[in-house]
Amino acid sequence: MIRFVWVFVVLLCGSVICQAQKYKDPAAPVEERVEDLLSRMTLDEKIAQMGMIRLDEAGKKGLNGIGACESPFIKAADIAGISAVSKRFFRDSTRLGIPPIQIAECLHGFLSHGSTVFPQAIAQGSTWNPELIKEMASVIALEASSAGVDQALSPLFDIIRDPRYGRVEECYGEDYYLVGEIGSAFVRGMQGEPEQTRKRIGTGKLICTAKHFAGYSAPVAGINLGPTSIGERELRSSHLPAFHKAITEANIYSVMPSYNEVDGIAAHESKFLLQQVLRDEWNFQGYVFSDYGAMDMLRYFHRTSADRKEVARKAITAGVDLEAPSLECYASLAELVEDGTIPVSMIDTCVKRILRVKFKAGLFEKTYASPEISRQVVGKASHKQLSQRIAEESVILLKNESSLLPLNRSSLKSVAVIGPNADQVQYGDYSYTKGNLSGVTVLQGIKEFVGKGTTVRYAKGCSISGEGKDGFGEALDAANKSDLIVFVMGETSSTLSGIGWGDESTNKADDPNTCGEGFDVTDLNPYGVQRELLQEIYKTGKPVVLVLVHGRPWSITWEKAHIPAILEAWYPGEKGGTAIARILFGEVNPSGRLSVSIPQSVGHVPVFYNHKPSGRGFYHSPGTKEKPGRDYVFSSPDPLFPFGYGLSYTTFEYSGLQVSKKRFGPDDKI
């Protein structure tokens, strides 16, 4: 009897505590929990929610709580262990026990050592298969959440406009409808179906972040962070629709403003973008997460603010809720309140948005991450098979003269695999590994597929961007001794230095970055002496198959004219070599389609397909070097390969196509 009374008293006390602290009651309405928690917070605690620290800094910098924590770039199981310790500190050792949002990069895989690496975003767009990308995003969420991650800084809803721009590889394509469909499918897979997420984000799912808002992918001269010189009409008609779909249909809960300025106003101080469009017109219910260091750039890069205090005033007035990666400019918010520059209510509004998302994501009730569970989930064989499937659906057959492909394994006695990316994995920006730590190269894929019945010779031949020709002799010797050459041309992104972390000792690549964030170019031809080596191999008279492993469209005019078979593989993920081999030998029929137009030269940029009627000339009398013409004197304005292009090993035709009705409204589906 005494024991029964004691249990009853404990339960009653717990009930009283929940009623007294409504924000801790999971059964209470979210808005009531937000208001209750906000009413208990000091100004310092509110401001802390508007900042971010590293996950392992909890005990040093998290005494007032914190809005978000950044996952370290280590093994997923180790992240899980740190996550459990840090989140336990915030729940048990801070006054109000507010958990942080643990964030990570998840563009084409959870950014941790050992996680599954999927094909880069530009390859995902080339599948034209939203449901497949939804499945991928769900797997990424599962791997990341096992390490305690709550929010992914993905996906991108930028549209490709200039292939000189290094972050082209992170974009799905040049068409806002395709980008909206693929990106929203990513959100539905990673965050959950909107019918569910409007109530609560489920277990094993992540808050998604739509970025970069807006116009980021059309910088002047193709230079990262450069100004975007477009007006409101172009912004609304081309750059905003994909974001609109993510917010109004997929119910995405976070938006990241872009580094750039749009029509003279930097995105992080743009009331037009962050208040008028995002909240007033679209009724966005999430929170705005600043890009890393972008707020302080208003001071030293855009030079629109004299100091960090002015930056803080402009950013909070525009509608930026959380500053990343650390509380620098928003550290001035208390001073701005004290001197009457801004009211406390402005801070309250930002904090409410952050807390609302935390409650929707179930952070106050989540169990801590477990290293053991993370080891079981991350990098599973089924996840790697999905990566291979996406690669197989993303590879584009650009040319197949005389049906050279598919190759016949039984009749092919020898093959030379040559080129700087033949035996080097290239995953693209925002992936963990720096070298061949995991994954299948094209050389490995071909060797595994043909077995012992075919002799496979290898020569690197040259580097990606260097001018050295010392390897030409070995490459030509391998070519002359073989029945056929597979030449793997391409580039490397900042997985190999800069953004990207791993064991330097296993890195075979010796090339500087040529693509990725901050790696823009002025020439779209193959770099270094790659083309020169290919031309020498072509002179042998042996059949050549060209495989492109890179992050941006290249102007392969010579290659199109001379090489009989060309595959565009982009950055195909950790099973890319297997996928490419299966396509080369006909085990898989290539089905990828270009999500971006390929220009004839850098001088033809831009070449996106949905241009204005007046955008490709008036005279329509294109010239050549032998016979000059008009519009362009020495060439046509057309792309080398257009948006949507892609061959297969079968022939077919469409006929009898009809639309379901004569008129379509803006909300109709075709």
Entry keywords:
alpha/beta, TIM Barrel, 23 helices, 6-stranded mixed beta sheet, 2 domains, 4-stranded parallel beta sheet, Rossmann fold, 670 residues
Number of helices: 23
Largest sheet data: 6 strands, mixed
- Give me the count of strands: 15
Q: Please, how many domains?
A: 2
Domain Glycoside hydrolase family 3 N-terminal: 42-357
Keywords: Hydrolase
Domain Glycoside hydrolase family 3 C-terminal: 395-649
InterPro entries: Cellulose_Degrad_GH3, GH, Glyco_hydro_3_C, Glyco_hydro_3_C_sf, Glyco_hydro_3_N, Glyco_hydro_3_N_sf
Layout of secondary structure:
Elements: H1 2-20, H2 30-40, H3 43-48, E1 52-54, H4 58-61, E2 68-70, H5 76-93, E3 101-104, H6 121-127, H7 130-145, E4 151-152, H8 176-190, H9 194-197, E5 209-213, H10 232-239, H11 241-248, E6 254-257, E7 261-262, E8 265-266, H12 271-281, E9 287-288, H13 294-300, H14 308-318, H15 333-338, H16 344-360, H17 371-377, H18 381-394, E10 396-400, E11 414-418, H19 442-450, E12 455-459, H20 472-480, E13 484-490, H21 530-538, E14 544-549, H22 557-562, E15 565-568, H23 576-584
Parallel strand pairs: 1-2, 2-3, 3-4, 5-6, 6-9, 11-12, 11-13, 13-14, 14-15
Antiparallel strand pairs: 7-8, 10-15
InterPro entries: Cellulose_Degrad_GH3, GH, Glyco_hydro_3_C, Glyco_hydro_3_C_sf, Glyco_hydro_3_N, Glyco_hydro_3_N_sf
Pfam family, one: Glyco_hydro_3_C
Protein name: Fibronectin type III-like domain-containing protein
Write structural notes for this entry.
Residues 395-649 form the Glycoside hydrolase family 3 C-terminal domain. Keywords: Hydrolase. It comes from Parabacteroides goldsteinii DSM 19448 = WAL 12034. This is Fibronectin type III-like domain-containing protein. InterPro entries: Cellulose_Degrad_GH3 (IPR051915), GH (IPR017853), Glyco_hydro_3_C (IPR002772), Glyco_hydro_3_C_sf (IPR036881), Glyco_hydro_3_N (IPR001764), Glyco_hydro_3_N_sf (IPR036962). The protein is α/β, with parallel strands linked by helices and 670 residues long. It folds into two domains: 41-375, Glycoside hydrolase, family 3, N-terminal domain (TIM Barrel, Alpha-Beta Barrel); 395-599, Rossmann fold (3-Layer(aba) Sandwich). The protein is 34% helix and 9% strand. The protein has 23 helices and 15 strands. α18 packs across α23. It is globular and about 80 Å long. The termini are far apart. The model is unreliable at 4-16 and 496-509 (pLDDT under 50).
